[in-house]
TrEMBL record:
Residues 1-18 form the signal peptide. The keyword Signal applies. Keywords: Signal. This is Fe/B12 periplasmic-binding domain-containing protein. The keyword Signal applies. It comes from Handelsmanbacteria sp. (strain RIFCSPLOWO2_12_FULL_64_10).
Amino acid sequence: MRRRVFLVLLVGLLGRWAAVQGGEAATPGLPKRICSLTLATDEMLAALVGPERVVGVSRFVDHAGISNVAGHYPASVPRIRADLEQIIALRPDLVCVASYNSADFLEMLHKSSLPVFRHEETHTFAGVMRDLTALGERVGAQEKAKSVVADMERRLSDLQTALASPGVRPRVLYWSDGWTAGSHTTIGEMIERAGGVNVAASLGMEGMAEVSVERALAADPDVLLLVAWKAGEPATAVELPPALRTLRAVREGRVVSVEGRALSAASQFAVDGAERLARRLHPECFQKQ
């Protein structure tokens, strides 16, 4: 309770200071002390600005199983949570947040008048590109953002060309501890771009959705897609519930896994997920590469 009162008072003082200084418009030039509270913006910023302009990154940035920029930011850069007191102490001139941060935290941050970039939860490759472009504009790295987006588009186009004649498109079911990816998900789009058919979407499921073992068995996918959360350790059928191991795809050895940092990426690294999955689903299309 006392800490919350302290934060309210501190936010009030910051708001008055910002009003005197002219708020966000008073920040001269480009942001030079950027705080990132999301792994997606950690990854985007790594391609857009030098690490010397980043004064705080998310606590997930060094997790090699989910982060594509582990080791990029020096140890001297604090790993932070959505803690307003900690953030204020870093004196940021831009704070990158996400739509999934708590409403209370976002409200307090708004009242502090600290400049904010809000990374919206993205469910498509196009959404990732929009966020990259918007963040590039906010940090004065428009040309770098254009280059990163152009590289994503080129690689996706090359992938489409490589899969021009993939033969049969296998029906793929993503499984992660009872959850799957339906339509309007980045993973679902990865499956489609990798030359597969997203089983969950064909069943009418939307977003990240729970799926029972019974429904997975009834769906009878051609391929079961798993996520490997530990770096360098592919996921295997051994980790599945016993009943799910009776799936035809499991019995016939058609279980594939993709690294979590690629499959769950909400940044430019999402293309890695599509490329790696495509090579597992259609290795014959990449034999000459």
